[in-house]
Amino acid sequence: MTDFSSLGLSEPLLTAVEEAGYKKPTPVQAKAIPMVLTGRDIMASAQTGTGKTAGFTLPLLHRLSEMRASQDIRALVLVPTRELALQVGESFATYGKHLPLNAVTVFGGVDMAPQIEALEAGADILIATPGRLLDLISKEHVSLGKLRILVLDEADRMLDLGFKDDIDRILQGVPAKRQSLLFSATFSPEIKQLASEFQRHPVKVEVSSQNSAAKTVQQSVYPVDHHDKPEILSYIIHGGRWNKALVFVRTKKSANKVAELLVQDGIQARAIHSDKSQHLRTRTLDDFKRNRFQVLVATDVAARGLDIEQLPLVVNYDLPKVAQDYVHRIGRSGRAGTAGCAITLMSPEERKLMDGIRQLVKQSLKVEPVPYFENGEVRPVESYEQPQKEKPKPSRKGKNHRGKSSTRKSPAGKHKNKRTKTRS
After folding, report:
1. 128, 313, 330, 389 - which has most CB atoms within 10 Å?
2. What is the pLDDT of residue 417?
3. What 3-state DSSP class applies to 47?
4. Can you spell out the DSSP letters for 289-357?
5. What is the pLDDT of residue 393?
6. Is the separation of the CB atoms in 22 and 34 below 8 Å?
7. Class assignment of domain 4-206?
8. The model's pTM
9. Is residue 25 within 8 Å of 33, Cβ to Cβ?
10. Bridge partners, 341 (sequence order)
């Protein structure tokens, strides 16, 4: 099996990779890194969680380290969201720790002054969201005239968010002679058109079929009534003894409400969405990564660019209206070859959305009963006596009060499970 030392990377980078705990490159890294090192344009298709960020940060750092030192920005990584900008910035910091190269991350929603100060101190690499980059260019704090390498990360998401015009404006200010790398979850007609506009005879790198969910993620779909979702979510977290979970909801209002209800059930939870300040979002994500609370409830603002090691569980509390977002959501778990679990709570009103997801991922995604838990593990039907048919009486006292749920059995008193499973 390929290891990092066979990919052509320099010793400082190999040392950083080893210190980060990685032994073997993922398929996208094994294919992309050698091609990027040749200086060719690359058009890569890779799902989230496949290690694609290191697939361009490592060879980009290698190439820059071999160039003559300069005070100019020589590499630009364009990303669609603030969260992804932070993730990519962390990747450069991790792998470039033994190299004399400086990476600066800029994005909107925060004060521009510290970013300007960081740029004035010198930047070899700039990671930026399109809007903030254009602001900095217009104020003459950024010049891209000496750029050598351009990366469009999650290009499909950039088009989804309406950044095409911004990308065109940015491309007008970069040299024609450069290396251009494009990473996308799909090779849609729109992505192919974008590639034709800024790349020269790109080499295609594909590591999995388009729109496929990560094979390392075990997917389960539970049929529930919409009004039962809070009880069942709490039951799953408590009963399965999940110490870390990412829960996706459709709206900002739902994110706040679900997090509040979980807290009232004795589960440490916080919400994250676009109405939260960037400072608060960054702090919340950092606390979640450091295991300072148990459940992060998020809108799809966090579906891309949220890189969390060892995230065992993703829950689709609400099904996404865009089927592709299902793949991005569950891709937060099972990253870089690790095992993960994705649970979807499907109400009768969401069956058509599930049909669309099935068609996209080309999987049956069989609907199964909410499992019965015993001592944190899923138990087969024959191991317990079937509960009573009626639902337990609600434990809430008033509109905003929820009783403790840690001792609950099945939330609706009628769910069976036909298989067992174990988790690490």
Report:
1. 330
2. 39
3. coil
4. HTTSSSEEEE-GGGSSS---TT--EEEESS--SSHHHHHHHHTTSSGGG--EEEEEEE-GGGHHHHHHH
5. 43
6. no
7. alpha beta
8. 0.63
9. yes
10. 218, 313
Per the CB < 8 A criterion, the answer to whether 200 and 40 are in contact is no
Helices (H), 96-129: 113-120
Fold: same for 4-206 and 217-383: yes
Average pLDDT, the chain: 84
Percent of the chain that is helix, strand, coil (3-state, to 5): 40, 15, 45
Over residues 98-153, the pLDDT tens digits come to 999 999 999 998 999 999 999 999 999 999 999 999 999 999 999 999 999 999 99
Instruction: Detail the DSSP E strand segments found in 87-159.
Output: 103-106, 125-128, 149-152
Q: What is the DSSP letter of 367?
A: B
Under 8 Å between Cβ of 142 and 174: no
Residue 412 has pLDDT above 80, yes or no: no
Contact 105, 173 (CB under 8 A): no
d(CA 340, CA 332): 9
| Contact yes or no for 317/289 (Cβ under 8 A) | no
49 confidence band (pLDDT: 50, 70, 90): low
> Each residue of 250-292: pLDDT tens digit?
998 999 999 999 999 999 999 988 788 777 888 888 899 889 9
């990779």: which residue's tokens? Answer: 17
Contacts of 318 (CB under 8 A, 6+ apart): 248, 249, 250, 251, 254, 345, 350
Name which of 121, 126, 164 is nearest 143 in CA terms: 126
Rounded-to-integer distance, Cα 155 and Cα 161, Å: 10
Separation between Cα atoms, residue 227 and residue 75, nearest integer Å: 50
Q: What are φ and ψ of residue 61, in 5° steps? A: -60, -40
Hunting for tokens 């079929």 — which residue is that? Answer: 209
Span 217-383 CATH architecture? 3-Layer(aba) Sandwich (3.40)
Which helix (H) or strand (E) segment holds residue 346: the answer is strand 340-346
Please give the Cα distance from 338 to 340 (Å, whole number). 7
Distances (CA, A) of 70 to 39, 143, 170, 284: 19, 13, 21, 36
**3 state DSSP class of 344:** strand
Q: What is the pLDDT of residue 307?
A: 66
Domain assignments of the chain as residue spans, ordered by start: 4-206, 217-383
Q: How many CA atoms lie within 13 A of 255 on its CB side?
A: 21
Residue written as tokens 């606390």? 287
Take residue 205 and report the two structure tokens written for it.
């790198």
Tokens 């298709």: give the residue: 45
The pLDDT-based confidence of 423 (bands split at 50, 70, 90) is very low
> Residue 208, CB half-sphere, CA atoms under 13 Å: how many?
23
